[in-house]
């Protein structure tokens, strides 16, 4: 619906949890633009206020409540983490042609924008900020295909080893980390290649006149309540009531 349908189907309006996540990301990114000595909890909280937006919140009172919480999150994050070292990348775009099988010609290009890339002891570390309702664990960090792809692409782009990935959950202060092996990264690449091939085949068939509903069937489930394309999907609308724009905020 985002990439193939034209005109692009109607989407929902802004979501408060997305606004909150974007504001926290922007504040932490801006923090590293100031000299290390000024990267204080107070400065982090001030940057949060500077980047604040109210889109998606129920009202001004709810927005103010979450602004205060988010200021506390970033202040505590800076207080309990070493932010004096400059990252190798902030919102860094990394890209690489790859093949899951060593020594074979590239079969796909993986790319994405990593929240933060640190260098520790000569190796790169992928850092991803989270502001959701649930604190992540090691399994989530290890099983995240996006983080694995960032690690592979960062190593190829920046020419330094990269096997460690971390999820930093601001509301709880949790850091979930995982260290990949060459085989675990290959497994993620194989999965990505299988998905890419399925999408490529379906896209080509659609362009040749195939039935879009058969090639890309709706799979209604609970998440349809907060899908961005819900206004344009009858199956999603039938799956359940629409979520309020603020219902996915961390409690």
TrEMBL record:
<dbReference type="InterPro" id="IPR011335">
    <property type="entry name" value="Restrct_endonuc-II-like"/>
</dbReference>
<keyword id="KW-0347">Helicase</keyword>
<feature type="domain" description="PD-(D/E)XK endonuclease-like">
    <location>
        <begin position="12"/>
        <end position="234"/>
    </location>
</feature>
<dbReference type="InterPro" id="IPR011604">
    <property type="entry name" value="PDDEXK-like_dom_sf"/>
</dbReference>
<keyword id="KW-0378">Hydrolase</keyword>
<keyword id="KW-0547">Nucleotide-binding</keyword>
<keyword id="KW-0227">DNA damage</keyword>
<keyword id="KW-0234">DNA repair</keyword>
<dbReference type="Pfam" id="PF12705">
    <property type="entry name" value="PDDEXK_1"/>
</dbReference>
<dbReference type="InterPro" id="IPR038726">
    <property type="entry name" value="PDDEXK_AddAB-type"/>
</dbReference>
<keyword id="KW-0067">ATP-binding</keyword>
<protein>
    <recommendedName>
        <fullName>PD-(D/E)XK endonuclease-like domain-containing protein</fullName>
    </recommendedName>
</protein>
